[in-house]
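[agent] plan:
  1. take the single chain provided in the ticket
  2. run structure prediction with default settings
  3. attach structure tokens to the ticket
  4. add a short note for the reviewer (M.T.)
[agent] executing step 1
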Amino acid sequence: METVLGILLGALAWFFVRVVLMGVYTVDQNERAVKTSFGRAERVEGKTTLDDPMSEHLRPEERERYRYPQVRVIPPGGPYFRMPWERIHKVSIATMTVNMAVDFEDPRANAGGTRLDAVTKDQLNTGLTGQIRYRVSESNLYAYLFGIKKPFVHVMGYFVSVLRQRIANFEAKADPLAAQPASPSVPGNEMIGVSINDLRKNLRDLNEYVDLECRSSPARYGVVFDASLITAIDPPAEVESALAAINTAHNQVSSDISLAQASADQKIVQSRRAVEIETLRAQAEMAPIRSLAQELLELHRSGPAVLAAYLRNVRMALLDKAQQIYLEVSR
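[agent] step 2 finished; step 3 output follows
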């Protein structure tokens, strides 16, 4: 009897520990959880990731490939209870920062995760440094937990492929305010083909392009890229000095061109101002002449005698002011 009682008490103790104590769990504030029953996640019936706005960034041929079911997400809080055949998968949704050169499969790759290599359009092997901010997508936890075995490996591989493809085909945007393209014979115009300089001057455009291309990562892998920031582009050591010399020469040519343009613009402005001044002076001199002509016309319309009398009075006023008068005497 005592043996049976001991077995029952042991069974009750095991049941209490295994079911009650081990079945209670909580979810932290920066976590989300998904419950599985016999390995199957609790799903939202009739809903897939294609019903979420994040799938809008997928290409048409990718929509069926990345069609994942939507699962029920357990929010922060608790305590919650689970049965022994159920399992809780917790995921941190906090934003993380990582060096873009990190290789999760081989920590020794990319110079120990500090420098990412990429080839430019002029066949130069450059080194890239920068950071990536990412977080797990709460809207697609199925892809992160069950769709991919190593989601961060896939995400980093996708990011690196997009970045390298962009660098290999990068061309600087044309300046809409610039004049017609310079002739190839103009010194310094050869800088147009130096892609490393283009990349350095357009880091913002490069970052924006990568962010734009990675908008589909939540639907693909359940990971959101908050931002990518390329901080430096280093050319090979053997061409660094050559690029520095080219940049110096280009800057000098650009400075001389800017000075010449400023001098020409100043002379043009001065010429326009001189023309305006002379035009106003001529108009000022013509104003009294036109006024006198209008008065003479009115006097002539009044009659020949009136005009003759006006001329006589003007002549007498002039004679009154004259100190010497020369008269022609007919012989």
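[agent] step 4 note for reviewer: Residues 175-194 have pLDDT under 50 and may be disordered.
[agent] ticket updated
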